[in-house]
Each structure stands twice: as structure tokens, then as C-alpha cells.
Amino acid sequence: MDDFNEAADAMNKAWEASEPSVREAFQILFTPSLEDGQPLTEDPLAIINNHVAKMREFGVLSESSVKRRGDSARHLQLLRSICRTVTLRLEELKWFVYMNKEYDVPVPVPGHDEPYTYPPLEVLEERVDDGLQASHFLKSVGLSGGEGTQKVDEMLADKLIYLLSVENKHNDCNLVARYYFEHFLQPSGQEDTLKAIPSTAKHQIPYSGEAFRTGSFARAAAQIFGESEGSTHYARIRKMHRIADNWTPKGVLEATKQQEEENAYRLEREMRSKRDQLQGFLKDGIPFDDLVMSALCLL
């Protein structure tokens, strides 16, 4: 119970400390919606905090059946996972804002998404004498290698590095979110148990008696996790070295523009994928304000 309380308090503290643009981005990207442009709610954490308050009031079951105690413990873990992931996503968005304010990097936060402007290629080709080599680029992203002495304008190379850091941050946060929910979905710690959860699996919410559809959530989570498999460690290394292998003003300019476009649409694409899952939940009779909806959108 203490871990749950700490997670809930940290979540609300993070929310109160978040600036309006972060709150708006959180609601757009990490709370349930069925289409773009839906009106924002005054308190996007209301559903979660309502469950938190009821769980705190209900407390931990001690004198009840084994199943009810198990359901209570399972739900407590679910709420802790949700609260921790809300905090994670808020911190992620705050970091995005920091990168924009500090380095003018366009990030997926309203008011901080102004696109880069690029000099003409001819100008970049003239500004290479004091530029960076591929080896410097790879070193800046934590790798080694990079043959050749070709240099690229330092400001352009820095833009690419900053954009890549935004992508890496989001990839890391997706993995941390997955880890947080594994405590709920895979309490045994076995990697393959997620797929083994029956689609009909559920636990009883202790304070309401309603069912949380664990199986439906696990099935949707497995698909989301599967879609993020392209962001593996090897995929990142391959991407970095391909950029280094084409280390010319033209090659780096193209890579930077492509990375900026990927960053701009990555979270939107993920949100559309989650909306498909939400539509499936609705068809299964799960209400839009069900806790499973909020949990899914945090992944």
C-alpha cells in the first residue's frame, strides 16, 4: 500500500508542477480519445484519481477469501503501474520542452513544435572546414567507428543529434512504461506470460465489484509492444551507422529532415494505433470511461 500511495502522490505532484503546454500534450497523446480535435477536459486525471481515492478508502483486504485478496493486490499493482506511468509521461514531455527551450529542437508539445529551418545545400557544402566528421557523430551518440575525413557543418550535425536524442528518449520511455505494467501483467517476471494470459481473464475491482478486463488489456498491450519492436537496440545502431556511412552535407541534411518528420508524426501514429484498440474495447462493451481505456493510452 505504501508503494501505491507514493506513486499516486508523485503523479499528482508531477501534474501540478507541469506547465500548461505539457498538460495539453499529455491529454492529447496519453489519454483516451477517438479522433483528433476532441475538446480537452478540465481534469484528464479525474478517472485515475477517482480510482486512487476509492482504493485508499477501501484499503487492503485482510479478512476475506484468497481470491478477493488476490484481486485486491492485483488491482493495487495496476493502479500503482498507472500512476507511475503518468509521472513518466509527464517527465518525458517536460524533457521535450527543455530540449526545445535549450536547443530549439522541435518536439511534439503545443507551442514547442516549430519546425527547423535549413540553409540551402550549396551553403552547407561551403561550411565544412570547421565541421564534424562521422567519427565525432558516432561518438556523440555513444558509438564508435566512422571512416573518412569528410566533414559536415557543425550546426546541421547538432540538429540531427538533438532530433535523435528526442527519438531515443521516447523509445526509452516506451520501454519503461512497458516495464511498469509488467509488474501487473507479468508478476512472475517471465517474458512469455503476456501472450499466455487468456483473453477472458479479469479481476474484480475491490471497491466497486466491477471487473477489470485484464485479458483484453493484455491483448492490446501485446500488440502495442509488438509495434514498438522496430525501436530495438540493433535498429538504432544500424540507423546511426547508415547515417555515418553517408556522411556528406547532402546525406546529413536528408537524414535530419527525415528524422524531424519521424519525430513529428511518431507519437500521433502511436495514438492512432491506440484508438484502434479503444474502438475494439467499445465493441466489446467496455465503457469509454473504464480504467482499462486510461491504462492503454499510457503505453
Can you lay out the helices and strands and say which pair or pack?
Layout: H1 2-16, H2 20-30, H3 46-58, H4 66-103, H5 121-126, E1 132-133, H6 134-140, E2 151-152, H7 154-185, H8 193-196, E3 203-204, E4 211-212, H9 214-227, H10 233-245, H11 249-283, H12 291-297
Antiparallel strand pairs: 1-2, 3-4
- Topology as a string of helices (H) and strands (E): HHHHHEHEHHEEHHHH
Structural class by secondary-structure content? mainly alpha
Distance between the termini: 23 Å
Strand content: under 5%
Q: Main beta sheet: strand number and arrangement?
A: 2 strands, antiparallel
Gyration radius, to the nearest Å?
22 Å
Give me the number of helical elements.
12
Number of strand segments: 4
Q: Approximately how much helix is present in the residues? A: 55-70%
Order of neighbouring strands in the sheet with most strands: 1-2
| Tally of distinct domains | 1
Uncertain runs are none
Overall pLDDT: 92
Shape: elongated
Defining traits:
4 strands; two-stranded antiparallel ribbon; mainly alpha; two-stranded antiparallel sheet; 299 residues; coiled coil
What would your notes on this structure say?
The longest helix is centred in the N-terminal third of the chain and has 38 residues, at 66-103. This protein has one domain (2-297). It starts with a helix and ends with a helix. The strands form two sheets. The protein has a two-stranded antiparallel ribbon with strand order 1-2. Strands 3-4 form a two-stranded antiparallel sheet. Helix 6 runs antiparallel to helix 10. The chain contains twelve helices and four strands. A hairpin with a 6-residue loop joins strand 3 and strand 4 (211-212). It has 299 residues and is an all-alpha fold. Residues 250-277 form a coiled coil.
